[in-house]
What we know:
Oligomer: single chain
Structural class: mainly alpha
Helix content: 25-40%
Radius of gyration: 34 Å
Shape: rod-shaped
Number of strands: 2
Distance between the termini: 47 Å
Number of helices: 5
Strand order of the largest sheet: 1-2
Amino acid sequence: MNWTDERVELLKKLWSEGLSASQIATQLGGVSRNAVIGKVHRLKLSGRGRASSATPRAKKTAPSAPKGPRPSRPVTTSIGATALQARFDAEPDVAPAPRLSSVVVPISRNLTLLDLSERTCKWPNGDPLAEEFSFCGNDVGEAGPYCGYHSRVAYQPVAERRRSR
């Protein structure tokens, strides 16, 4: 892309009117936003036109295109920070918790901390600051600190964790 004298003049005009580099690139056509920014720096353009204080967020109209074969393109502008605006659905899609119909909740043996061994379930029952606090105390499986039921509660398979996100 060559920067002709007409295109440079249009760039200077649009820059002084306060258009963004993206808007100028759209008006010029065939040039990227970064090319506009680079040319502005090489031309050492600094002063920018400002919108009037009465309507700071007013939509800008597209400046007329230079006389020539290229028709004018409309400039799309957004008012405010609408590009980053969050959109929420009415109801979030949350997967229902899986039902464990064949799981039997074991009756806790209610052991104290001093009664625990390496073969007893260490699942806490209740508030640790309360006097009735205890541990499950049922027999543990091959490995781990919990009985079969509390292991299924404590450890969720990776596939289920990914599905719930």
